[in-house]
Amino acid sequence: MTILQKIGLDSKSPAETILTTYNQNETPHMSAIGIQTVNEDKIKMKLYTGTKTLQNIQNKKAATINIVNNAVFLSKQGLPEIFSRKIKSSDFAKAKNVNSPYLKQADAIIEFKVEKTIEKTVSDRIGKSNITEVIGSVKNMEVKNSYPHPFKRAEFYLIESAILATKAIESKKRQKEKLAHEYVEKIEIFKNKCEKIAPESRELKTISEILDYFE
Hints:
Blueprint lengths: L2 H5 L7 E8 L5 E12 L2 E7 L3 H9 L1 E6 L3 H7 L14 E3 L6 E3 L4 E16 L4 E16 L9 H21 L3 H21 L4 H12 L2
Helix pairs in contact: 3-4, 4-5, 4-6, 5-6
């Protein structure tokens, strides 16, 4: 088993992570991104064309993958339209081997340099989108927190709700209200499931806040 696999990454299924980069003025930027491995020392991700994250990666040719076990934090970073981001420089430190910041609260970090980018057009129910596949060469890996974190169903419900919310937001931008409503209805189902098993959880509170945005 490779170190990337031990951290939790593989080539079969994307892992939800926080990607940190530097803006042009050297301030930190972060976003929630799915990551997969290519081999034992290369990773890949798909970024929408025109996003700040892609611009930063193209400018700096580097970034850091942050593995976090906090599903609430992860989900909120993926929904800037719903949750305000309070980014402080003190929350970050500079990566050792690449020109990128990393989150001090990360459980593990993977520093990489961009090896190549491939532009693609993909289609789904929402419509056509231009994306860029980024392939990176790993330059450093560190495990910051070795304590185990058990799987929680409430966390799964929240992460799926956050992903559905991004689809609903994009559907609304493209004036596909019916499709957006379908995604919101699915979030309602996850909320109900979460309410049954974890009625006082932060995960349920966050799912409720996501739904409030669409009312």
